[in-house]
Structure formats: C-alpha cells, structure tokens
Write a structure and sequence with these properties.
single chain; 4 helices; Arc Repressor Mutant, subunit A; 3-stranded antiparallel β-sheet; globular; alpha+beta
Length: about 90
C-alpha cells in the first residue's frame, strides 16, 4: 500500500471510514491514518466524524468506524452531511 493507492481508493469512493480503508488494504488503522495525514496536509482529504457526538460521549464506538475521510479534489469542501450511521450499540443515533 502506498499513498497513491489510498488516493485512488478514496477518490473512487468519495468518502469512507478509516476502518473501510484499513480493511480494503488489509493493514492497521494507525498506519492508514498516518498516510491519510499526508493527504490532509496537502489539502486533498478532510477528516470528519460520523456524528457530532461520536468520540466525545459514550466512547463505545471504535474510532476507526467513526472517522470518515472525504476526498476534496478541486477544493470541494461542501459535500454535505456524512451518511454513516453509528453502530446499533451507540446511544447517540
């Protein structure tokens, strides 16, 4: 897995969770997060949370399932709300 592989995968999907990317490339979420940070610094990717409450209240969700990465090619930062529901066990859905 190299930076261009992640770029191509994320460009194709538009947005996806950290866990989706890690699963697709069969690698550790922290390794993927580090590579995504490169694209974030270049202004090509934006990190968002699945819901505003995720990561700040119950702490029951795996952070890799609530971190959503959006490809911003062309400066499109207004993609709207992320359409990812929290897991069933999360009390914030």
């Amino acid at each position: 897995m190299i930076l261009s592989d992640i770029r191509d995968y994320l460009k194709q999907r538009g947005q996806c969770t950290l866990s989706d990317i890690a699963l697709h490339f069969d690698t550790d979420a922290d390794a993927v997060r580090g590579m995504l940070d490169v694209w974030i610094r270049k202004g090509k990717v934006e990190k968002r949370l699945a819901t505003a409450a995720c990561g700040s209240s119950c702490q029951s969700c795996d952070p890799a399932t609530t971190e959503v990465y959006v490809w911003l090619e062309g400066g499109d930062t207004a993609r709207g709300d992320i359409d990812i529901s929290p897991p069933d066990y999360c009390g914030k859905h």
